[in-house]
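MODEL INPUT / OUTPUT PAIR
PAIR INDEX: 1
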Amino acid sequence: DNGTLCFAFDGDVYTLAPGGEPAKLEVRIAIDGLATLDEVVPVNSGFTELKLAPSGKEFAYVFRGEIFVSDMEGGITKRITNTPYQERSPSWSPDGRTLAYAAEVDQSWNVYTVSIEREEEPYFYASTLLKTETAVATDAEEYQPEFSPDGKEIAYLEDRVAVKILNLESKNTRLVLPADKNYSYADGDQYFQWSPDSKWLLVQFGQPER
């Protein structure tokens, strides 16, 4: 209102009164140190849960709570998930075109699948279009998914110890090992494995206490 001009020059702020000389203002910027700083992190160590693809040409793994797939020879890596949630337990379908995994979405573990969309793309590491779908999502905790060898079903843990199976065609689930047969002492201490013919599950089984 009094004719003073304010302007920026070379990264600084100045004022200029009528007939006067430019005066540089001292500017202090306070930060609380909570801002997120970008950092490029190489994906070459510290990853876990490695799973080799049926083709033997690529492998999936977990790094910093996300799922990646790398090829075995050329050093090409593709990030499969990119969410604010934690992902774990990747499992390959027999044809290598789908990955099942668990994710902690909104404080609840669920099972999801991600598939290669384009028929002409046989590998995840070189894929351009992926489709993510919810396989199982209830109020219970579902994780540790495992594809059956015939690719028709996914076995998984419910609430740490119960083993259930999802039929991918009907979307129905069935309980095959009740929760009272096991007890979990630590995360990841439960084990089960499909038989090659997809008709049986090898499981941990706690004998009842007498």
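PAIR INDEX: 2
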Amino acid sequence: LQALAGPAPLEVGLRGALRALQAGLRASGVALVTSDDATAASPATTPSGAPSGPDVRAWAGAGADTGPAPPVLVEAASRALGGVVAGEGGSGGAHRPGDRPATLTSVFPAPGGRAALVAVWSPDGDGPGEGKALLDDAANSLRLALERDASERAQREAMALRSSQELQRQFLSWLSHELRTPLTAIRGYA
């Protein structure tokens, strides 16, 4: 929670929070995946024609957690986000169909769409146990962090727009003054 609420950029805080959550759940991988409303309504496609999936904001797993997220995390998140109506929050239970790894998901509204917090355990691991409450609490904290980040981004954009408008007003004032001087002489001569 301190990493998410602190002054560090959201992406740095997300990695630290997901590492802590992974350790607390004893999961083999944890990911935060977002999907915007447009993607949820009509999934986009890549240039090759394959559907583009949700955006993996951050993930933590056994070993390195840089680079692309493991397909099992992305697949579980896609299933979770596909199973919830846009704009509604929801929680998935623990799933272990066949030889698939056990998964636990929590879907929640995020700025501009939805997000899913997904935890995955290896097929031979212990499974989620009583981790649902921890996952839901983490999802709530992540929702607040995403909202704060969106609010800060909107505030920066508004400040940039105000600055741009002030520069535009100053330029027009300067231009008007500089044009008035030669026009006065021309009009006097005419």
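PAIR 2 NOTE: Residues 45 and 51 are 4 Å apart (CA to CA).
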